[in-house]
Amino acid sequence: MLEEARKSVAEFHELIRLGFINKTGEFVSVHMYPPMMQHPPMKGGDIFKGYIPRKNGQFAVYAHIPFCIQQCAFCYYPNVIGASENEKDAYLDCMDREMGICLQKLGMDRLKARSILLGGGTPTHMSPAQMKRFLGFFTSRLDMSAMTQFGCDLDPLTMLGYEGRERMRILRGAGVSRLALGAQSFSDAILKKMGRHHNNADNIRAIGVAKEMGFKLNLELICDYPGETPEQFLAIVKQAMSLDVDEIMIYRLKIIPCAINPCAINKLLDSRPDPLSSNDEQIAVKSMARDTLRSGGYRETLTRVFSKTAADYSHYAKDYMGDQYDTVGFGYYAMCQLHDRFCQSTYDLKEYCRELEAGRLPIMNGLIRSRDQQFRRSLLMPLKGNLAVSKEAYRERTGTAMSEVFGKKIDLLKKYGLLEEDAEFLKATEKGRFYADEIAHFFFHPDLMPFPREQYADGPLNPYNDNETMN
Questions:
Q1: Domain residue extents for the chain
Q2: Distance (Å, rounded) from C-alpha 227 to C-alpha 111?
Q3: Are 184 and 149 a contacting pair, CB within 8 Å?
Q4: Are 377 and 398 in contact (CB under 8 A)?
Q5: Which of 99, 132, 185, 301 is the most buried (most CB within 10 A)?
Q6: Thinking of the domain 36-320, which architecture would CATH place it in?
Q7: Which residues, 6 or more positions from 350, have their beta carbon under 8 angstroms from its beta carbon?
Q8: What's the rounded Cα separation, in Å, for the pair 184 and 191?
Q9: Which positions ≥6 away from 127 have C-beta within 8 Å?
Q10: Is the distance from CB of 248 to CB of 219 less than 8 angstroms?
Q11: What is the pLDDT of residues 307-362, one digit of tens each?
């Protein structure tokens, strides 16, 4: 395992030399294309005008509940901290109204849900009565006959005690089958540094509740958090495996923001004297964690998600990234990712409510994607998700073969062992899966690259090479 870690670090440096990874070794996580920060303002716009749903008529559906007990040190999202019960009730009034307006604009009575995710914030940071009310109006507007999975993100404390168990019963009654538990660590000292409000014992008890009530369970763990040694993190991974959960997700700490807010961890940028050295350690730890999980019978299904069986993963993530179902999101800061357009709601809570009270959708920004953006998104998002790109599906989405658009770039990544293909699919190799974000950036438009050209070595894998704009 140690030898494999050394090999991974050597490959990391070689990819920097080839220009594939920027010279600092830092990374930017890819969540969408174009990136969130690059969407133009569209306040008051009617993004659904002219929209034609896909033939299958199915949607990935997301609901955003922004409430949290406190802001964690690593979190970039504009959560609502310390909201009163009255404020939560008012938010639910607005979300109820938003769903009605949105469905009216789509010309539908109900959305046919392929998969559903409740996220935040902390969706379970509501009283049981509020959760029951929310799930009532939410699910009443969905056709769940073809649904493959209903998931919910949550933290341990909201699962515990009488109220916690009541929340879990309400979720089960509404059809929720999968929980993503933000454990983040099993070390009390690291949890305190993260600004988490729970401890290791809370994690263990919450996992017990989830298993007792029959949920599929994904554990989320941050890899190599500042102040944590590689040995400590590997011990945490082994502890997670010993708890016999269905999935374990490990992810690198995001130093460079991928959302609207700065956060406490950004101060590390000024305090780290040698970022590349620290990244060496992160790559080594990530390699050893991957091999530890494999040795325990877990396989990588989505990027950085290791599952006990092939079916244990977020169907919402696969639908959104790989199969690219049209995605409709409700709530403050939520997004709609439709096959030819995008929009996002405001992250100003007062504006969110004000717009809906006036009968308008609270859209902050959005766009109708250009031909160039469609070509790129249809290829890079599945690769980011560790999912094969169907050549037939790509042609159906874009009207063009991916080899006609990105042939040179694909051949380069194949030559250096990062991509492979057969007659039907293009996918990342084992080596390439380790760098899913960088593979996605390789197909970004030059104007949207996360780092300027001079921050990449002038090698054959410099992502600015052979990167013509498609009109």
A1: 36-320
A2: 46
A3: no
A4: no
A5: 185
A6: Alpha-Beta Horseshoe (3.80)
A7: none
A8: 7
A9: 85, 88, 163
A10: yes
A11: 999 889 999 999 999 999 999 999 999 999 999 999 999 989 999 999 999 999 99
